[in-house]
Design a protein that fits this description.
7 helices; HAD-like_sf; 2 domains; Rossmann fold; alpha/beta; four-stranded antiparallel sheet; 14 strands; 258 residues; Hypothetical Protein, Haloacid Dehalogenase-like Hydrolase, Chain: A, domain 2
């Protein structure tokens, strides 16, 4: 058997064809061949656990880093999924409301979001994924905050200084709204290694977009897809062909990982 490595794959744009949302067939074949060769294979995604779980189960995974690094699934069991730092998140919530922007708050690992009014929807429209809106006129987040969605236009980030709090991550994915969620793919990966007994120098990460920057650091072997963001390619050790051009399979074969 080849020396055991620990492979971590982003989902969107890496494992999946963004046009269809489905896993690239050759990538699924590569995952099985890596597992059959004795390697550790896992997802590392910014998706919340509830959102990543269907893909995880449909494609035969048993291990996953999710929720931007906060969630850990080992042997199919969710073993960790803590919320955001409440003090930092609540301060940003108050700052956002005071500045006149709408806010949606996810208090658990589900499609539910809470708000005191419809300001977010009026300013940004509805979210671009399944969501159940719970509107309560006197709503205030008084318990766990897992994610927040801010109706913050591009170019106005300076109006919310708490965006840069070190305990919070912020990203834009789809639409113009800002998503407040963990941005700790590297730390989540390292926590996974601690639990399964792996070494950082044996890790190989695959990614394509800006939310993969955090895990594209030494000593990991970093593989950027051919369709990746230019800045991620600049951080990579290896640039694969585009994911839809069988990039994962071709690089694994070329590197002798099968």
């Amino acid at each position: 058997m080849a020396h055991k490595k620990y492979f971590f794959f982003d989902i969107d744009g890496t494992l999946t064809d963004r046009a269809t949302g489905q896993i690239v067939p050759s990538a699924k074949t590569a995952l099985k061949k890596l597992s059959d060769a004795g390697h550790f294979v896992a997802i590392n995604t910014g998706r919340a656990h509830y959102k990543a779980r269907p893909f995880f189960e449909a494609n035969g995974f048993t291990n996953m880093v999710c929720s931007g690094g906060h969630g850990l699934v080992i042997d199919g069991v969710l073993v960790a999924n803590p919320p955001l730092d409440y003090g930092a998140a609540k301060a940003l919530y108050n700052e956002t409301i005071a500045a006149g922007y709408g806010v949606l708050v996810a208090e658990d690992d589900s499609i539910d979001v809470y708000a005191k009014d419809f300001t977010f929807i009026k300013q940004m429209g509805q979210r671009l994924e399944p969501t159940r809106y719970i509107i309560e006129a006197h709503y205030e987040p008084i318990r766990d905050i897992y994610k927040m969605y801010l109706a913050l236009p591009r170019g106005e980030e300076h109006r919310l200084p708490h965006l840069n709090h070190p305990a919070l991550g912020h990203l834009r994915f789809e639409g113009d709204y800002m998503v407040i969620q963990p941005d700790e793919k590297r730390d989540g990966l390292l926590r996974m290694l601690d639990r399964v007994g792996g070494a950082p120098e044996d890790v190989v990460v695959f990614g394509d977009d800006i939310n993969d920057f955090d895990m594209f650091t030494p000593p990991f072997t970093r593989v950027a897809m051919g369709n990746a963001h230019p800045r991620l390619k600049a951080m990579a050790d290896i640039i694969a062909p585009a994911n839809v051009d069988d990039g994962i399979y071709r690089i694994c074969e070329a590197q002798g990982w099968f």
